[in-house]
Design a protein that fits this description.
By secondary structure, the protein is mainly α. Helices cover about 95% and strands about 0% of the residues. The chain is built from 1 helix and no strands. The longest helix has about 70 residues. The termini are far apart.
């Protein structure tokens, strides 16, 4: 009787671990995909910031040129 109870508990624990392992693999895959997406978004944001800085510098140079021309 106790052997059958112990065997049932081992079987239940094994099934529980088997069910959990698939979920953890799926979670790991989702975490990896999210990390890749976050890295891509960070790279896009850095590129946009660099482009904005370049545009701002170009606008500042243009404004300085216009101010100098208007001062004459």
């Amino acid at each position: 009787m106790t052997k059958s109870i112990a065997l049932s508990l081992v079987l239940a624990a094994s099934l529980g671990l088997a069910a959990c392992s698939g979920k953890s693999e799926e979670n790991a895959a989702n975490n990896a995909a999210n990390a890749a997406e976050n890295a891509s978004n960070a790279a896009d944001n850095a590129m946009n910031a660099a482009l904005n800085a370049a545009d701002n510098a170009a606008n500042a140079a243009s404004n300085a040129t216009n101010n100098a021309a208007n001062a004459m």
